[in-house]
């Protein structure tokens, strides 16, 4: 086990070298432990107990607000603890939390023709992603990625290793599916149910790119057709500046995962037949793959950039195109983008009993991307100003694209939030695990209040 204390030469690299967002935090762990096995994780938690300091965890390093970088903590970096074991017959994978979606799927697709609907960005770690719920591939139909978590292995705040599932240590299992960074332990392994990978060229996409002035008409179309659209197809609308262009565009993307070219074409045809006129570019049922999609996502979210993300679940009955018009048509930087992601019908079904419990038909997120530090204020002010208005029409937000230092809102149904905060206090009464990073990092054992704080002002 490698321990890098604050006075070590490589401390700065250990502190933030694996943090995706280059808007760097001024927070300084006492030490970083590079764990390579479960025993290292147990030893690191015991070290924190001995030193009476907190424990922070990093899996993939992709939390926008760098939740892994905390004062007065031992940061357990799981980046060198990568392991996956596949039981293809039963369609189960056992994977460590720093495995990324791409790493896991490269093994599953290549060797077993299976897949796991992990994060859209290839390099997001399973750890942060699954603890929050996980809006993975085709979430609107296949459901939340955490619904495929059968069990988790956990090192508790006291340093004990436990197996948690529906029969044993049920509370930790319940919390691991939606607590996000407030989970009161360190997950060492996820036991995951897998999907078959689409066969015979059935992974295909259609895209329709419009000038931004057609925003309202196109958005209404997509909202109308989404609820009854094919159930192996995910649907997103994005406003962005295509590479090399100064014109903002409104781009609607359908990605379907079927078992033949014919089935994919049939799934995508209703969009082709009903699309509004006026595209500047379009394609129908183009051959695609997970790898190709990962490359596109990596291109849209470049490394070594500065980011500010926020999001909202817009109320089902809101006039969504009107509510989101400012967000989609006034992006502050050419690299930034706004996303609407169809969640219906998943949003209309009763979720399993787990911490994750907040959603609506319309997921909306801002991914504000820029390069220069002197754009920090302008870009963050833009996000804040847009979100102040959007929040009035929202029912809550997703932990995964949130920063509680800026905005706290509803992240769970009331009952689930209450139970989650009780489980946190029961399993970590001293606040050993850092938990939710709010302003000043003071939330501790209290956790989050689960209220629309801006709306209430
Ligand atoms: C470019 C990009 C694209 C994204 N796309 C998606 C997407 O498609 N769908 C989606 O749902 N989200 C998406 N996200 C959000 C992403 O899921 C969250 O940021 C998530 O927290 C990242 O997980 P991580 O392990 O990489 O991050 P980390 O920063 O390593 O972890 C975040 C926090 O989670 C907790 N944590 C992580 N691992 C453990 C563990 N083993 N035990 C206990 N606690 C742990 C800790 O509090 C940690 O600080 C995206 C983010 C980025 C940057």
From TrEMBL:
Cofactor section: FAD
GO molecular function, one term: oxidoreductase activity
Record key words, sorted: FAD, Flavoprotein, Oxidoreductase
Pfam families: BBE, FAD_binding_4
InterPro entries assigned to the protein according to its UniProt record, in alphabetical order: BBE, FAD-bd_PCMH, FAD-bd_PCMH-like_sf, FAD-bd_PCMH_sub2, FAD-linked_Oxidoreductase, Oxid_FAD_bind_N, Oxy_OxRdtase_FAD_BS
SUPFAM superfamilies: FAD-binding/transporter-associated domain-like
Family recorded in the similarity comment: Belongs to the oxygen-dependent FAD-linked oxidoreductase family.
Entry protein name: Uncharacterized protein
Native source organism of the sequence: Penicillium atrosanguineum
């Amino acid at each position: 086990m490698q321990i890098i204390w604050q006075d070590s030469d490589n401390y700065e690299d250990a502190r933030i070298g694996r943090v995706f967002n280059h808007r760097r935090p001024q927070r300084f762990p006492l030490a970083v432990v590079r764990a390579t096995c479960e025993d290292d994780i147990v030893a690191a938690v015991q070290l924190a107990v001995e030193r009476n300091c907190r424990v922070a965890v990093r899996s993939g390093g992709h939390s926008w607000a760098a939740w892994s970088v905390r004062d007065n903590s031992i940061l357990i970096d799981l980046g060198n603890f990568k392991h996956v074991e596949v039981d293809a017959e039963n369609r189960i994978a056992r994977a460590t939390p720093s495995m990324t979606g791409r790493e896991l799927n490269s093994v599953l697709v290549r060797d077993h023709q299976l897949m796991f609907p992990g994060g859209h960005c290839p390099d997001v770690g399973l750890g942060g992603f699954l603890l929050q719920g996980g809006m993975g591939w085709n979430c609107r139909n296949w459901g939340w990625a955490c619904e495929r978590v059968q069990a988790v292995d956990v090192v508790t705040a006291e340093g004990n290793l436990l197996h948690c599932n529906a029969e044993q240590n049920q509370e930790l299992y319940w919390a691991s599916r939606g607590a996000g960074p407030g989970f009161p332990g360190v997950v060492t392994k996820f036991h995951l149910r897998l999907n078959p990978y689409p066969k015979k060229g059935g992974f295909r996409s259609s895209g329709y790119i419009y000038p931004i002035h057609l925003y309202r008409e196109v958005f209404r179309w997509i909202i109308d057709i989404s609820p009854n659209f094919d159930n192996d197809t995910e649907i997103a609308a994005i406003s962005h500046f295509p590479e090399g262009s100064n014109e903002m565009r409104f781009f609607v993307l359908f990605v379907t995962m079927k078992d033949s070219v014919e089935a994919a074409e049939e799934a995508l045809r209703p969009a082709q037949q009903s699309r509004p006129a006026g595209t500047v570019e379009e394609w129908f049922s183009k051959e695609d793959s997970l790898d190709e999609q990962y490359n596109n996502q990596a291109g849209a979210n470049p490394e070594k950039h500065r980011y500010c993300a926020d999001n909202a679940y817009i109320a089902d009955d809101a006039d969504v195109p009107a509510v989101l018009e400012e967000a989609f048509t006034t992006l502050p930087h050419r690299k930034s983008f706004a996303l609407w992601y169809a969640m219906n019908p998943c949003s209309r079904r009763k979720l399993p009993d787990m911490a994750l419990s907040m959603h609506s038909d319309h997921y909306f997120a801002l991914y504000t991307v820029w390069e220069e530090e002197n754009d920090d204020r302008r870009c963050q002010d833009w996000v804040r100003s847009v979100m102040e208005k959007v929040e009035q029409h929202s029912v809550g937000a997703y932990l995964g694209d949130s920063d509680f230092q800026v905005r706290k809102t509803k992240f769970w149904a009331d009952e689930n939030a209450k139970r989650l905060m009780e489980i946190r206090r029961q399993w970590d009464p001293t606040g050993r695990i850092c938990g939710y990073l709010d302003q000043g990092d003071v939330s501790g054992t209290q956790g989050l209040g689960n209220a629309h704080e801006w709306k209430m002002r």
